[in-house]
Each structure stands twice: as structure tokens, then as C-alpha cells.
């Protein structure tokens, strides 16, 4: 997928101005459902699971090479082949090598963010292999030639009307206007592909080192068809997805569906191990794992290492006020929301995603809901610091921050200036007491207004008065 993150400001402005985006974002119900599941589970018990999950993921990352080696040994002993790809280009090359080796012509795919990183559909099509997305949201995105806008609800930017139009155009069928009818039509179309494909490509939510297995969490059942019907299955995952044991997997699975979609358990949960037995009629004859680095190994030992704990649940974006306003396409690459604002600059370089570390209010909601306790606001702050150190921020902004830090070091001057500032803002607020425009900060007030400070002094004045 071509990275467009450098255009975050332009893309987010367009999304804010689009009432359809705002309507779609308002319909995101995952946060509410997560809260209900946490209450059912018991807040204290849920916290204990988060602590355990954090420890499991830290243990996996601390000894990543050992667990990957164990995974490779176990998977190979059960008939699978483990391949490695150092970057996105190599992912495509490995997949095409497998296609040529087994003379494969049609690939059915279940949702895989790694395949988006590698722009795999275009690579497959260029090599003469027909890719067909089978997750309903991904299928809609493929028909529309759109990238996903949410990691677990990829087509959430599309309205039902738009989907109906797409189906008429691509299926050549009469227009349907009910969601169930559209789903049934997609299912009928996809069934033909399930029956005729010779390759299944999936992602992997987790790799289990002790058994050499891949765990898949889906809600539509397509994952099982993709991984068991074609004669060849390729599972593509990041190297950081490995966990030591099945016991670890069970802890993480208590958190993943509850954090992601607000479900106690997803509709389908599969743990796939090895190739088809000689006396079995199910499962692939050939199983390949492609373990992808693409920037991940560089994070080990860096101040961004905590990000490798991510289990791609999407809870951080479901709770992020910025994501909920600008939508997923604004972020311009595979991963949106707070996790994307860390991962995109980490994988693709700070220069390629200048505004993403700033696309956050640092309210902390993301880290409060993260099932593996990733301190996202701290990581975003650290990326901001790196940008300043590397002189990547505009000169005016750096000068303003320098002045601010000088003033903040002199308490009496800071107190005077904030007092004058509050008075100036009150004047700007006029009789309505609302600030709708700010000199030199138009970007701030273009999309929002806020109340002018009330008479009675600054926060510091009031705090001092109260203490007295
Ligand atoms: S950063 Fe945390 S909340 Fe966000 S997707 Fe990853 S695991 Fe989920």
C-alpha cells in the first residue's frame, strides 16, 4: 500500500468536512460494547488479565529470537515450511515463489494487515494470480479499490447505499436494499471462489511457539474456508506475533474479542497446526508461514519496544477522539488511530509521517483500554521529541516551543503572561464568550470553537486563592 501519511492534514480536513464520514464514525459502537463486557467480567479481574497479558507479551518480545526458533522447529516438524521476509517487497516475492512452485492461479484471502503492508493483491494480480478477499469488509474494499479504514471493520467508511451500488456494478445483479440481502449475495458470489481457489492466504493473530500453530480469530467463518479448502495455505504474520504457549494464548484470548468488538468470544476461533494428515480429507497439503520483519526488529531495545506488544485489537482507535473525527483513511497507511500514529513512523520513517505523532490529544484513553497496556501517549511524545531533535518540525513551531519552555522556567513571568493571555482570550470571546478564531492558530479553530476564560483569574490564581 502506497504511504500517504504525509498528507494527514489535507486528508483529515476533507474527512472532517464530509458529513458522511462523521455519520459513519458516530455509528462506531465497539467502545460501548467493550465497556459492557468489562463490567460483566469484573473490572478488577479484567485488570488482572491485562497485567498478565502485558507480562506474556513482554516475555515473548524479550526473547523473540528464541521463540521464533522454537516456532520454526515445531511448525517444520509438523510438515509446514517457515519462510522469512525482511521487508514488504520480500513478502510479495516469497508468495509468488510459492505460487510458481505449486502452479497456483487463484488466491482466496482472509483479513491480513501484513498483506496490506505488502500491497499483496497488486503483486498477485501482476504475477497472474487472481486475489479474492473473503472477509465481507475486505471484499467490499476490494470491489471499491479502497484501502481498509479500520483494522477490524475495514469497510466502515462505506454506507449501505454505496455497497448496494458496488454490488450492482460488479455482480451485475438487481439492486438490493437490505443488509442481510447484500450479505447473502456476497456469500453466494464468494462461495464460487472458495470452491475454485488453489491457494488460501491468511494472517495470524498469534503464533504459538510450543506447537508451531497459528491462531485465527474471525467472525465470518471465511478464515476456516480459506485455511482448509485450497491445497496450499500461506499464513503471513509479523515476527512479533509469537507467544510461547497455548496457556499464554488462552490469557490473550480473554482480552482480544472483548477489547476489539466487545464480544466475550469471537464467532470463530481456530488454532491450525501442520498440514493435512495422509488419512484426512481436510486441510492444506502444503502449509507455509511467512514471518515478516518490515521494521519490527528495529523496535526491539528501542524506546518504542512496548509497541511490539500490540495484538491489533483496535480498541485504541475505537476510543480515540481524533480517529473518531477524522476516520481511518486520513492516516494514509495500513494502521490508523493511535497505534498507527506510532507504527507508521516507526516502520516507515519519521519523515514519511510527520503529523501522525501529533494526531492525538494525549488524553490517555487509548492506553487505558489497551489490553496489553501499551503506553501510547508516552510513545507518541517520544516520537515528537525525536522529530524536534531531528529538526523535522517547522521552524516557527520549534521557535514557539523554545520560547514557551524558556518562559515556563520562570514562574513569575509565566504567571504574568498567562494572566494577560487569559484577558486577551476573554476579549476575543466577545459578548458570546466563545472563541471561534485565533490569530496564528487558525488550524485549531477551523474545526472547533471553545469557551473564553471566565473572569476570576487563571487556574494558578484560583488554586493559590483556594489554598489561602
Ligand atoms: S495498541 Fe493496544 S489497543 Fe491499540 S490495537 Fe494495539 S493492542 Fe489494541
Write the layout of secondary structure elements.
Elements: H1 8-17, H2 19-26, H3 30-41, H4 43-62, H5 64-77, E1 80-85, H6 88-102, E2 106-109, H7 113-117, H8 120-126, E3 130-133, H9 136-144, H10 160-171, H11 179-196, E4 199-202, E5 206-208, E6 213-218, H12 222-228, E7 232-238, E8 242-243, H13 246-260, E9 268-272, E10 286-292, H14 315-318, H15 321-326, H16 337-348, H17 365-369, H18 376-389, H19 395-408, H20 411-429, E11 434-435, H21 442-445, E12 450-451, H22 459-467
Parallel strand pairs: 1-10, 2-3, 2-4, 4-7, 5-8, 7-10
Antiparallel strand pairs: 5-6, 6-9, 11-12
Helix pairs in contact: 4-13, 10-11, 16-18
This protein binds iron/sulfur cluster (SF4).
Key terms:
468 residues, alpha/beta, Rossmann fold, six-stranded parallel β-sheet, four-stranded mixed β-sheet, 22 helices, 51% helix, globular, binds iron/sulfur cluster
Give the proportion of residues in helices: 40-55%
Number of helices: 22
Q: Output the CATH homologous superfamily of the largest domain.
A: NagB/RpiA/CoA transferase-like
- Rough outline: globular
Number of strands: 12
Amino acid at each position: 500500500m502506497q504511504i500517504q501519511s504525509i498528507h494527514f492534514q489535507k486528508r483529515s480536513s476533507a474527512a472532517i468536512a464530509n458529513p458522511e464520514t462523521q455519520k459513519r464514525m458516530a455509528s462506531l459502537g465497539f467502545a460501548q460494547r467493550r465497556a459492557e463486557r468489562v463490567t460483566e467480567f469484573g473490572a478488577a479481574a479484567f485488570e488482572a488479565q491485562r497485567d498478565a497479558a502485558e507480562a506474556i507479551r513482554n516475555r515473548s518480545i524479550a526473547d523473540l529470537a528464541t521463540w521464533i526458533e522454537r516456532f520454526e522447529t515445531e511448525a517444520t516438524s509438523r510438515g509446514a515450511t517457515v519462510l522469512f521476509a525482511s521487508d514488504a517487497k520480500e513478502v510479495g516475492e516469497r508468495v509468488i515463489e510459492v505460487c510458481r512452485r505449486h502452479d497456483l492461479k487463484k488466491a482466496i484471502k482472509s483479513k491480513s494487515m501484513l498483506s496490506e503492508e505488502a500491497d499483496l493483491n497488486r503483486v498477485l494480480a501482476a504475477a497472474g494470480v487472481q486475489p479474492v478477499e473473503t472477509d465481507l469488509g475486505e471484499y467490499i474494499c476490494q470491489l471499491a479499490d479502497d484501502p481498509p479504514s479500520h483494522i477490524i471493520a475495514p469497510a466502515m467508511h462505506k454506507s449501505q447505499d454505496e455497497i448496494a451500488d458496488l454490488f450492482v456494478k460488479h455482480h451485475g445483479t438487481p439492486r438490493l436494499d437490505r443488509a442481510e440481502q447484500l450479505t447473502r449475495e456476497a456469500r453466494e458470489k464468494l462461495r464460487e471462489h472458495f470452491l475454485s481457489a488453489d491457494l488460501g492466504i491468511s494472517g495470524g493473530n498469534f503464533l504459538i511457539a510450543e506447537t508451531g500453530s497459528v491462531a485465527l480469530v474471525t467472525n465470518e467463518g471465511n478464515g476456516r474456508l480459506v485455511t482448509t479448502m485450497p491445497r496450499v495455505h500461506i499464513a503471513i504474520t509479523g515476527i512479533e506475533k509469537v507467544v510461547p504457549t497455548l496457556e499464554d494464548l488462552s490469557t490473550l484470548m480473554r482480552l482480544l474479542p472483548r477489547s476489539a468488538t466487545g464480544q466475550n468470544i469471537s464467532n470463530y476461533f481456530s488454532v491450525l497446526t501442520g498440514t493435512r494428515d495422509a488419512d484426512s480429507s481436510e486441510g492444506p497439503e502444503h502449509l507455509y508461514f511467512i514471518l515478516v520483519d518490515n521494521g519490527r526488529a528495529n523496535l526491539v531495545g528501542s524506546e518504542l519496544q512496548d509497541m511490539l506488544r500490540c495484538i491489533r485489537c483496535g480498541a485504541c482507535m475505537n476510543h480515540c477522539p481524533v480517529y473518531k473525527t477524522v476516520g481511518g483513511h486520513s492516516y494514509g497507511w495500513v494502521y490508523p488511530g493511535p497505534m498507527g500514529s506510532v507504527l507508521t513512523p516507526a516502520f516507515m520513517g519519521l519523515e514519511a509521517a510527520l503529523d501522525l505523532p501529533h494526531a492525538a490529544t494525549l488524553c490517555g484513553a487509548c492506553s487505558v483500554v489497551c489490553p496489553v497496556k501499551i503506553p501510547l501517549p508516552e510513545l507518541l511524545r517520544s516520537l515528537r521529541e525525536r522529530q524536534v531533535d531531528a529538526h523535522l518540525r517547522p521552524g516557527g513551531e520549534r521557535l514557539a516551543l523554545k520560547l514557551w519552555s524558556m518562559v515556563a522556567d520562570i514562574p513569575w513571568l509565566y504567571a504574568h503572561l498567562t494572566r494577560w493571555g487569559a484577558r486577551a482570550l476573554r476579549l476575543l470571546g466577545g459578548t458570546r464568550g466563545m472563541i471561534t478564531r485565533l490569530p496564528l492558530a487558525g488550524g485549531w479553530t477551523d474545526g472547533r470553537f471553545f469557551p473564553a476564560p471566565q473572569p476570576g483569574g487563571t487556574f494558578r490564581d484560583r488554586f493559590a486563592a483556594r489554598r489561602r
